[in-house]
Design a protein that fits this description.
Blueprint (H helix, E strand, L loop, with lengths): L1 H20 L7 H20 L4 H22 L5 H8 L5 H12 L3 H40 L3
Helix pairs in contact: 1-2, 1-4, 2-3, 2-4, 3-4, 3-6, 5-6
């Protein structure tokens, strides 16, 4: 439980820091940070319990995209001020760096494995975003608008 709190706090800081760098409105910083922390914790929990990088990234992006869309409608702000900072903790940048580092050290099989995992993570994020957007536009959005909750 303490480890999950650790991940939550540092992914929150990561999301808020990137949001500040991107100059998003100050009133969206906390919400964007919480969205990023939820997304990372979802990814980390799935990955630490034996799920593949693809599945963990897919579920993480589904969480991020749906929560961001709900917050964007509820607070009447663009979707990107919530989604982009929330996506920062799960982008496989460090993994790609590690893949290039091992490639330059002539560890070709290890590098190929790391590149493949990075690719799986990026594809999982992209597929999750597409699925979440489609589901929200077709099912969730109209239901929320019809019930007057958003």
């Amino acid at each position: 439980m303490l480890l999950l709190l650790y991940h939550f706090v540092f992914s929150f800081i990561s999301s808020v820091s990137f949001a500040i760098l991107c100059d998003v409105p100050k009133k969206t910083l906390v919400t964007g940070g919480v969205i990023g922390a939820i997304g990372w914790c979802g990814y980390w929990e799935m990955w630490s319990h034996g799920q593949s990088v693809f599945m963990a990234s897919l579920v993480c992006s589904l969480l991020l995209a749906n929560i961001s869309q709900i917050c964007a409608i509820k607070f009447k702000m663009p979707l990107t001020v919530y989604f982009i900072p929330g996506l920062v903790p799960v982008v496989p940048g460090v993994t790609i760096y590690d893949a290039f580092r091992t490639l330059l050290l002539d560890e070709y099989s290890n590098s190929a494995h790391i590149f493949l995992n990075s690719f799986y993570g990026a594809v999982g994020l992209a597929v999750g975003i597409i699925i979440a957007d489609s589901l929200f536009r077709v099912i969730i959005g109209p239901l929320l608008h019809k019930k007057g909750r958003i």
